[in-house]
Amino acid sequence: MRAPDTFQTDRLTLRPVTRADAADVFAYAGEAAPTRFMPFVRQRDPAESLAFCIRCEEARVSGAAFPWALIEQATGAFLGVIELRLSPPKADFGYILKEDAWGRGFASEAASAVVGWAIDQPDIHRVWATCDPDNAASAAVLKKASLSYEATLANWEARPQLGEAAGHSCVYALTKSVA
Ligand SMILES: CC(C)(COP(=O)(O)OP(=O)(O)OC[C@H]1O[C@@H](n2cnc3c(N)ncnc32)[C@H](O)[C@@H]1OP(=O)(O)O)[C@@H](O)C(=O)NCCC(=O)NCCS
């Protein structure tokens, strides 16, 4: 099962992440605010961003994950990345934007497009994501993308920037009606 290579929303184009995006990825993955709640160690070297982008290319080829760059149509600016993982009957996703793109509805717009596509697939019955209980902005994005809070999972994810080896996570989901 594969996801589309591109999405067009009102203001965004979502297109595959490639190794040419490494400098743009480092612009957020090396910064404190965007990586605060993320499970990876904040990047210190642009070579780490290049490795991430190569992994994105490979994941799309294998189908392990579908990472898209968020491109603002009006400016051509690279705003961040959203990634969908398809594992029928479910799919999960995550996202991160550079700080100067926050607060303009871009994450919600991208997440809504990706979630909408995923839940429309006959083989996908659950679309889910998690966030740190203190990540109010991410929780708001998930609700705007039609997911609902389900539970708080104890010791779900490492958050190296917060010094947590196994932090709690809130799980949100959109599910099809039970037959
Ligand atoms: C989480 C993140 C993707 C949100 O991106 P964004 O483009 O600013 O989100 P949106 O503009 O779509 O905002 C969605 C909603 O969140 C709300 N929001 C934003 N910051 C908030 C905050 N600190 N507290 C509460 N709500 C907040 C907005 O008001 C908006 O709701 P509204 O349209 O009703 O006003 C962005 O902050 C980010 O990249 N953070 C770092 C990475 C991260 O945490 N990723 C998620 C990991 S689970």
Automatic annotation (TrEMBL):
Domain N-acetyltransferase: 12-179
GO MF, one example: acyltransferase activity, transferring groups other than amino-acyl groups
Superkingdom of origin organism: Bacteria
PANTHER family recorded: GNAT FAMILY, PUTATIVE (AFU_ORTHOLOGUE AFUA_3G00765)-RELATED-RELATED, N-ACETYLTRANSFERASE DOMAIN-CONTAINING PROTEIN
Entry protein name: GNAT family N-acetyltransferase
UniProt organism field: Brevundimonas goettingensis
